[in-house]
Amino acid sequence: MRFGARDVRDLSWKQLMDAYTCTECGRCTSVCPANITGKLLSPRKIMMDTRDRLDEVGKNIDKYGKEHDDDKALLNDYISPEELWACTTCNACTEACPVNIDPLSIIIDMRRYLVMEQSQAPAELNGMFTKIENNQAPWQFSPADRLNWKNED
């Protein structure tokens, strides 16, 4: 079992169907705050890359059989970690889609793979993860010291 998604075989049928259903209208990308501010993320590209990779995997299955591995993956070969981490998870792309496609679910699953399987996250998140593990909260204070602020003058 794998946490998150590295390739199209790890995505749900709903996510794969969304990739084929995308009408490429671009409304998702036009409302994406990350894209608007010039970051690399384009929800439309995420959906098209997913569809393109799925087509490639399907052709390889037809040609070589179900167990064929072409040493490619959706993550890194089609979609970069930089694109995934640019997402603010605001859900604007899903809200704007006229056919209810959810690019955010693919982004979240691929991020989950990066964090839980590859231990690759931005430094800011790694610091927070460490604090949560050690202090049960994202702050640097131990649980016993959290209310000390009320005693200060």
Q: Count of helices?
A: 9
Biggest sheet record: none
Q: How would you name the oligomeric state of the polypeptide chains in this document?
A: single chain
Number of domains: 1
Q: Looking at the structure, what is the overall shape?
A: globular
CATH architecture assignment: Orthogonal Bundle
The succession of helices and strands, N to C, reads HHHHHHHHH
Compute the separation of the termini in Å.
Answer: 53 Å
Strand content: under 5%
Briefly note the CATH topology name.
Fumarate Reductase Iron-sulfur Protein, Chain B, domain 2
Instruction: Decide which structural class fits the backbone.
Output: mainly alpha
Measured as a percent range, the helix fraction is 40-55%
Could you report the average pLDDT, rounded to the nearest whole number? 93
Could you tell me the radius of gyration in angstroms? 19 Å
**For the record, what CATH class applies?**
Mainly Alpha
Would you write up a description of this structure?
The protein has one domain (8-143): Fumarate Reductase Iron-sulfur Protein, Chain B, domain 2, CATH 1.10.1060. The protein is an all-alpha fold. It has helices at residues 13-21, 27-31, 33-36, 43-64, 74-77, 81-86, 92-96, 103-116, 123-135. The protein has nine helices and no strands. The mean pLDDT is 93. Helix 1 (13-21) crosses helix 4 (43-64) and helix 4 (43-64) crosses helix 8.
